[in-house]
Amino acid sequence: MSWYQVKGAEADTVISSRIRLARNINGYTFGKRLSAEDAKEILCQVEKALSEDYTRTDMDALSSVSARALVEQHLISPDFASLKAPRALFRNDKKSIYLMALEEDHIRLQCILPGLSLQDAYRLAAECDETLNEALDIAFDDKLGYLTHCPTNLGTGLRASVMLFLPAMTERRMIPSLQHQLQKIGLTIRGMYGEGSAAHGCIYQISNQITLGLSVEDILRNLEDAVGSIITKERALRKNVTDEAALLREDRCRRAEGVLHFAKCISSEEFFSLYRDVKLGICEGIITSITHETLNTLFISVMPAMLVQNESPAPKTALARDVLRAEFIKKALEVKPRG
Amino acid sequence: MSWYQVKGAEADTVISSRIRLARNINGYTFGKRLSAEDAKEILCQVEKALSEDYTRTDMDALSSVSARALVEQHLISPDFASLKAPRALFRNDKKSIYLMALEEDHIRLQCILPGLSLQDAYRLAAECDETLNEALDIAFDDKLGYLTHCPTNLGTGLRASVMLFLPAMTERRMIPSLQHQLQKIGLTIRGMYGEGSAAHGCIYQISNQITLGLSVEDILRNLEDAVGSIITKERALRKNVTDEAALLREDRCRRAEGVLHFAKCISSEEFFSLYRDVKLGICEGIITSITHETLNTLFISVMPAMLVQNESPAPKTALARDVLRAEFIKKALEVKPRG
Predict the structure, then answer these.
(1) Which residues of B touch A (CB under 8 A)?
(2) How far is the alpha carbon of B285 from chain A, nearest alpha carbon, in Å?
């Protein structure tokens, strides 16, 4: 099952944890100047290095809609979807490891898990990394650590990130000050959906900015500590409301639930704010008929490319897509979630 | 059953028909200068004149909330509710005749029926009027007809009115031109709820302005003809929409239905627009789980005074009333409508 289909730890505030390791192979040009022949060789080498649990998907074989659908699931980067050069995505059967071969680096090894699970995600990524290190001549310098195309990834090559749901901090306009504080400790936060608009999903990604001069353990601990205090803060803010505010919140959450069940068309922008209100409703025990997993799966499934990728003929207008989205949601909410 | 609990003819455009006859008794002062003693005598005379099917309610015995609740059901005028002098409402068991004794005139005899039923309403009112004419010395002049306190009611003393639901004409901003046309033929139209605001109920009352020099038959026929062509126009406009407009209308209607089922608090202003969208949804076959009678009953029942009249303790804040309203609506929609 994909990361969004499973409930993780701290599901009320943490949507997912992600580890990304950047690696390159000695003897090949770094970056875009790599020849097509060398590119094919690298893809071959990576495929051989990985166990049979992995499925290779050559990106040129995919339609642009399918490629965008992978971006929407956070499995590949937007750049990786749009590049024209040879490149491939390798996925393991358990759907935890997603390896982009020939993105900015030769290898971008990723592990995504639901909820707060940075250590588990790192452990799984490190296992795969070990396999690659054994089979391939990975570029490593005793002083600098892992060599990467962009110097900002040098050293550990590690980008650890956590996707957070912060409706209370957003409502109280605390994100700019949080951003300022995180910067001081080498972390960065960015809004994911509809930031600054009415359709604000209140979803943010926090990740480390520094990869060099710190151990993997330090990087993970630093991020985990910061996320831990953000969770505590967010939860306290959600609790600390007047009776009237709680009532209005309940009203907002329930209305959003009603829209999911009743609307005839729903735009993706509107869905961000519905997601926010329904998720908060689940967190606060206001909404009991929808689970976090169902809602997260819905969130990914109704993204523009995910929504239409299996539709034939594809809906032609924005309105037709919005109708399809509303129908999809209604159907998904009829199905009882897994135990 | 009250008028709003029964489905009438042309329920998609006509909510109710109303006949009002103004009558006065010879030998008593007309209007506000009437002494308290004379007032009591009149109330006694009217009570005696009416059959045992009628129940007398002395207005001074009612709480202000109960009086306002009668206004909200359109059974008495706002003036009648707030006057301080002795006055009484007489209602028949069948809940079709409502007689205000000592409003502006000594007697204001009203019959309200659901849907388009002016002739039936007039017939019932005329029956009661005959009873009164036999028992009382009703002020009548061979040249002027029935004498009334205000000269605008002289002659027939008849005000015939029809309450219409005109969402399509409203959306196309055709009401001002309709008003102009109606004026030319001695009719008047006025908006009933939330006119000019976002919470527009699209409910209008059309009635005759002229009572003198025309026969009852002429007045009724003139109004019926006008209403007939308005119904035709409104229906044609509702049908004449693009596929996209029809889809967006369906979306709006279904969302309103969703709000009725899911919202935690609903203001009376919001209810006007929900009523409009849900009623249109019923008319267009979009909403099948709610009937016109249920919705009309709901409309009357969630009016501010109707809503709280049986609540103890009465809700203290506007928000508490809005919560009560939402709860009432949810409960009412769970109950299956009468066959």
Answers:
(1) 244, 247-248, 250-251, 254-255, 257-259, 261-265, 319, 323, 326
(2) 14
Q: Provide the shortest C-alpha distance from residue A259 to chain B (in Å).
A: 6
Q: Out of A244, A250, A262, whose CB is closest to B258?
A: A262
Tell me what the mean pLDDT of segment B54-78 comes to.
93
CB nearest A319 (choices: B244, B257, B264)? B244
State the nearest Cα–Cα gap between A319 and chain B, in angstroms: 8
> Has residue A251 been placed in a domain?
yes
Both A204 and A268 in a single domain? Answer: no
The answer to whether the CB atoms of B255 and A261 lie below 8 A apart is no
* Same domain flag for A169 and A291: no
Q: How far away is chain A from the Cα of B264, in angstroms, using its nearest Cα?
A: 4
pLDDT tens readout for residues A168-206: 999 999 999 999 999 999 999 999 877 667 768 899 999
In a domain, A338, yes or no: no
Interface ipTM:
0.88
Give chain B positions within 8 Å (CB) of A265: 247-248, 251
The tens digit of pLDDT for each residue in A77-104 reads 999 998 888 999 999 998 889 999 999 9
Number of domains comprising chain A: 2
Chain B positions in Cβ-Cβ contact with residue A285 (cut-off 8 Å): none
Q: Which residue has the tokens 């059901």?
A: B73
Judge whether B337 lies within some domain: no
Closest CA to B87 of B72, B70, B104: B104
The SS3 of residue A187 is strand
B contacts of A245 (beta carbons < 8 Å): none
Q: Give A220-229's long-range contacts (Cβ < 8 A, gap of 24+).
A: A220/A118, A220/A119, A220/A122, A220/A160, A222/A185, A222/A186, A222/A187, A223/A118, A223/A160, A223/A161, A223/A162, A223/A187, A224/A116, A224/A118, A224/A119, A226/A182, A226/A185, A226/A187, A227/A14, A227/A116, A227/A162, A227/A164
Is residue B308 located within the same domain as residue B169? no
Amino acid, res. A138: I
Per DSSP, the residues of B33-53 read: G--HHHHHHHHHHHHHHS-TT
- Specify the range with the lowest mean pLDDT, choosing from A159-173, A236-250, B191-205: B191-205
Domain that holds residue A109: 3-238
The reported pLDDT for the residue numbered A206 is 97
Contact: A250, B257; criterion CB under 8 Å: no
Predicted local distance difference test score (pLDDT) of residue B297: 93
Query: pLDDT grade, residue B270 (50/70/90)?
Result: very high
Q: Are B269 and B232 in a shared domain? A: no
- Could you say which of A244, A257, A319 has the minimum Cβ distance to residue B262? A257
Q: Which of A221, A238, A255 is the last residue of a domain?
A: A238
